[in-house]
Amino acid sequence: MNAAFPLLFEKGRPGRKGFSLPPCDVPLKPLEELLPRECLRKSHLDLPQLSEPDVVRHYTALSRRNYGVDSGFYPLGSCTMKYNPKINEDVAALAGFASIHPLQGDPTYQGALELLYKMEQCLKEITGMERYSFQTVAGAHGELTGLLMILAYHRSRGEERNRVLIPDSAHGTNPATVAMTGCEVLQLPSNDRGLVDTETLKAHLDEKTAALMLTNPNTLGLFEKDILEISRLVHEAGGLLYYDGANLNAIMGHCRPGDMGFDVVHLNLHKTFSTPHGSGGPGSGPLGGTTQLEPYLPYPVVAKDEDRYSLDYQRPRSIGKVHSFFGNFGVVVKAYTYIRIMGARGLKQASDDAVLNANYLLNRLKDLYHLPYKGPCKHEFVLSARLQKKRGAGAGDIAKALLDYGIHPPTVYFPLIVEEALMVEPTETESKETLDHFIAALKEIAAAIEADPGKITGAPFSTPARRLDEVLAARKPVVRWKKEQ
Amino acid sequence: MSGQHYLPLTDPVRQEMLASVGAASIEDLFLDIPSSIQLTRELDLPPYLSEPEALAHLRHLAAKNVNLEDYTCFLGAGAYDHYIPSAVRHLTHRSEFYTAYTPYQAEISQGILQAIFEYQTLICQLTGMDVANASLYDGASALAEGAVMACGATGKKNVLVSRGINPQYRQVLKSYLEVRGLELSEVPLAAGGQTDLDEALSRIEQDPETAALLLQTPNFLGIIEKPGHLADTLQQHGTLLVVSVDPLSLPLLKTPGEYGADIATGEGQALGNPLSMGGPYLGFLAARENLLRRLPGRIVGETRDASGRRGYVLTLQAREQHIRRERATSNICSNQALNALTAAVYMALMGPEGMKTVAEQCLQKAAYAREQICALPGYELIFPGVHFKEFAVSVPGNPEQLNEFLLQHGIIGPLDLEQTYPDLPRSALFCVTEKRSKTEIDTLARLLEGWK
Ligand SMILES: Cc1ncc(COP(=O)(O)O)c(C=O)c1O
């Protein structure tokens, strides 16, 4: 049963080695002299023993059982799975970036600091913020740190505000973040157009309101067109506006969170700025603030004095640190490379094409699947498979059926306010032929569900593994391999 | 046009698609943006670069940095210069891995799911713990998440933190814990450089609200902690032992599992990840079985597919933000999966013998360097405790100036300790890994001797 894809542990053989190191060239001391017995490991270190070719074959085989953007279309809504330029990888691997120690000192990495500084200038311009920190390494990390800044700001004004408003369409990290700060989550029901309702908002704002967290365009792919009114209301109530930058790919060069009235912004370099998602990470989630809020950013920030760059730790109002060193520098290098290659016009064209691709798909799919919120959309849109579900195959089944077409499915069952949600984000790096292939696949699947939903509920058929039993995995969790007794 | 090589749409196709959606121009699709905030100018960014120009620009920036391929490094303090086998980058740069995202669609993600399952197992084997998650942002946030877990598991609010924990980690702990009303207090170091565990125990006896004791071993000053039977005593008080460990020390040193830690965390960078000025790295977090459902972040579990074959899926997702929202165990979503894959590939290549060789060479070479340096006039070992690969030395002058001097001779010198431990003036933390040769150590010692 395990023969086809054995684990590393099942492949190991005593005596095999996959490493090559020189012998120790200093005079050796007896181990007992250096480490008293009570400090020594007693149990046998039971790692697998493999040769280098064994390891290379193992991971090559695994990679062939995986699917990335380089494999094909990946319209995973909210994740911006755009193409990851190859030059990014080459640049980040240069010794002058990959082999520098974070504590070796400002004078020894002026080039790295200059890159961070230049990147900060770009992000400030793109978003209309005053200053950035690169310490936060993902969207959720930015959210947490941004809320810490907002709470510190209120406290500095002698106010205890501990309620954070989020729309019911928000990503799960938003409420989870609020909980991590000990604040109370107040969920705002969206209106019938999928937007924040200004009357509802008004009714929930008071002296307890610390902030409203918003994604704009929101997770339905719709621009919050009342954003200026929303911003006025929140600020008048003494609250602040937090921008979840997951969807910035829709609006580059068109409008900026700073101009919308946001006070703190995180970006996802692993979405908008083309850095690869690494099968789940690493990302980078730079955090920006307005003039009022930037003093609270984590320290250090990058400073420039004439031609010298330095790390500035003298930030008395800073919320402190949320990560060792300066965040995911290697990821920032890739995103900076991308911005330099795209330039202002290229970034705007990227947003234009992302929005055009999404609207093209929306228009061609809205008669096949229910569209709960009308377009035009921005860079993504959400369909509902509720009609298909009634016939016996829901969003999850449709996703599995798409796998047989060699397509990575859209995000499913999110946002929560859409029943049987299919959240489609094509990005700008896809051709019309690819979109047409996707449309054709969804059309066939819709027809198949009409005819015989049973065909779809059994999918996928042609993938490296057939449908996997998640219930079984959760009921009796096996989360590591163990030697059979 | 800039960046056109990443954009497959051509102008005629764009026109055709606009017509198909009923828009006269692309602007029609942006009419929902209030006109007062529509940008009427181009973004003011530096001019775009072609690929060769971009490469030249970035090479130019990279060339301004002193790098460890050209310089000899005796600096550690949380980021370590270990050898990375060639195969590591080749395998982690298979684009099916690095261009994928979180494996929500298990049927086409068996590769990374199996690799993470193996990673979880390798971390358990290394630490002697029962279960591990799929990675956290870094060593600092892993310790913070571990502390939060301990508070959740015990229902208590106070956390004791050793002063031997990396100062940056303690700052991150403060950011993560204080905002939710959890209290941190510091346990001092004893004269040997190890945490004053008697003091820690008496505090725990006085304060039944102590959720956890946090230790780092080897600690920031290079000293190996000796928890002995501490965990048993803590258990009697309902206090958990949470540790931060150097994964490359564990082939030799007593494991968290062996001394009874409840949660073991650490920085996984040393396992095959380049230094990259501090990131991307990975935090690992392992725990006893009974804490499985309190783990933050992704976990991969074994299951079966529809044909009965073994396979892997993300599991126990009811802990996570996308299901549980404000009741999730953490907000973490994107993590450091590719760095975890890197760590797994590294461990697979090194195997038990390679891992032990690295640990032993660190131990022996650091011991040799310690002896050479501390035999020099004006240089003195600060703590007599048991060391692994780092050691603190008082130096006959300003460490910052010492480092400038060493840099002129091609050496990245030790950490200036005074900055974070003001009670240790004129002192420096040296790190010696398996990559350092006897010649390099002798050169360092000679330079130190000649330094005025
Ligand atoms: C709308 C939204 N917000 C926040 C996040 C969290 O970002 P990250 O995974 O980088 O932490 C995501 C990620 O998918 C998202 O789509």
Describe the structure.
The complex is a heterodimer of chains A (485) and B (452). Chain A is α/β, with parallel strands linked by helices. Chain A has three domains: 8-63, no CATH class; 87-341, Aspartate Aminotransferase, domain 2; 345-471, Alpha-Beta Complex (Aspartate Aminotransferase, domain 1). Chain A has helices at residues 8-11, 31-34, 52-63, 86-92, 95-98, 110-127, 139-156, 173-180, 198-204, 227-236, 257-260, 329-365, 386-391, 395-403, 432-451, 453-457, 470-475; strands at residues 131-133, 163-167, 184-188, 209-215, 240-245, 264-267, 287-289, 301-305, 308-312, 381-384, 411-412, 421-424. The radius of gyration of chain A is 25 Å and the shape is globular. Chain B folds into three domains: 4-40 and 48-58, no CATH class; 72-84 and 352-450, Aspartate Aminotransferase, domain 1 (Alpha-Beta Complex), CATH 3.90.1150; 87-345, Type I PLP-dependent aspartate aminotransferase-like (Major domain) (Aspartate Aminotransferase, domain 2, 3-Layer(aba) Sandwich). Chain B is 36% helix and 14% strand. Chain B has helices at residues 11-21, 51-63, 86-92, 95-98, 110-127, 139-154, 167-178, 197-206, 230-236, 321-324, 337-374, 399-408, 438-450; strands at residues 72-73, 131-132, 158-162, 183-187, 210-217, 240-245, 263-267, 283-287, 300-304, 310-314, 380-381, 390-394, 411-412, 415-416, 427-431. In chain B, strands 2-8-7-6-5-3-4 form a seven-stranded mixed sheet, sandwiched between helices. In chain B, helix 7 links the parallel strand 3 and strand 4. In chain B, helix 3 (86-92) packs antiparallel against helix 11 (337-374) and helix 6 (139-154) packs across helix 7. The mean pLDDT of chain B is 97. At the A-B interface, helix 3, helix 4, helix 5, helix 6 and helix 7 of A face helix 1, helix 2, helix 3, helix 4 and helix 5 of B.
